User: Which sequence fits this backbone?
């Protein structure tokens, strides 16, 4: 074999390995994937829905959302970002006092899958400590920003006494699609979950990781529509700890 052929063969192998690694990473970043280690998605009852909200607390939209949830006697799960917890401790306590479950969403909402472990550990550990100090209660659940994770991250999360949580239904409420568009996305996800005989872990946002005070009115309105639908269908609204 010529030198050129050997070089070409080595390059092809390297590209193949890189392609396989990329596919593995992409697969592991799918919300429901368990390839990097077990994560909590949902229970096995299609008649159970968990409303979950990321990136708060947000003084512009979280209080509105709390009012809507209270009107329907609905509990939800909030995954909060440390930098906003520091700015809004009273709002964090209000969410907790209303009976909702609060989880760790890191200090600054980074894409953890590409970060060194010392950085990852600090983001997670500091957010838990801040939340527990603010609430005076233990924190037991964690959601990675963007769902971005790798095996070492999940091992650390579990070693901290946290259960990693993903989702299987999303409203895509980061897009300018209005309450109707958000609800339509959720309804498609609900149908997929029901087809698989699974409960629905619904991803929405009461805040925005890059800006405090972001307007999430469309999400609040979509939540109201969804709760009306749940009421008509006699759906059980649960927090994610129900499925542990």
Assistant:
């Amino acid at each position: 074999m010529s030198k050129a052929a050997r070089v070409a063969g080595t390059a092809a192998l390297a590209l193949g390995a890189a392609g396989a690694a990329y596919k593995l990473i992409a697969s592991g970043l799918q919300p429901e994937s368990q390839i990097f280690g077990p994560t909590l998605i949902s229970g096995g009852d299609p008649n159970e829905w968990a409303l979950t909200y990321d990136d708060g607390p947000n003084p512009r939209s979280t209080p509105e959302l709390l009012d809507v949830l209270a009107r329907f006697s609905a509990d939800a799960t909030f995954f909060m970002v440390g930098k906003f917890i520091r700015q809004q401790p009273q709002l964090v306590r209000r969410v907790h006092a209303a009976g909702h479950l609060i989880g760790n969403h890191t200090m600054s909402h980074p894409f953890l899958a590409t970060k060194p472990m010392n950085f990852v550990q600090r983001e997670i550990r500091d957010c838990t400590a801040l939340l527990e100090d603010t609430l005076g209660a233990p924190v037991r659940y964690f959601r990675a920003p963007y769902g971005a994770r790798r095996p070492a991250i999940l091992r650390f999360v579990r070693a901290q006494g946290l259960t990693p949580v993903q989702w299987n239904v999303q409203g895509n409420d980061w897009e300018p699609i209005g309450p109707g568009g958000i609800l339509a996305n959720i309804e498609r996800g609900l149908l997929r979950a029901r087809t698989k005989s699974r409960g629905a872990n619904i991803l929405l946002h009461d805040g925005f990781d890059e800006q405090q005070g972001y307007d999430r009115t469309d999400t609040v309105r979509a939540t109201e529509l969804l709760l009306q639908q749940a009421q008509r269908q006699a759906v059980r609204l649960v927090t994610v700890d129900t499925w542990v």
Observations:
- Helices lie at 3-28, 62-71, 82-87, 89-97, 117-135, 151-159, 178-195, 217-233.
- The beta strands are 48-56, 77-80, 101-104, 141-142, 163-164, 169-170, 200-205, 236-237.
- The radius of gyration is 20 Å.
- The first strand starts at residue 48 and ends at 56.
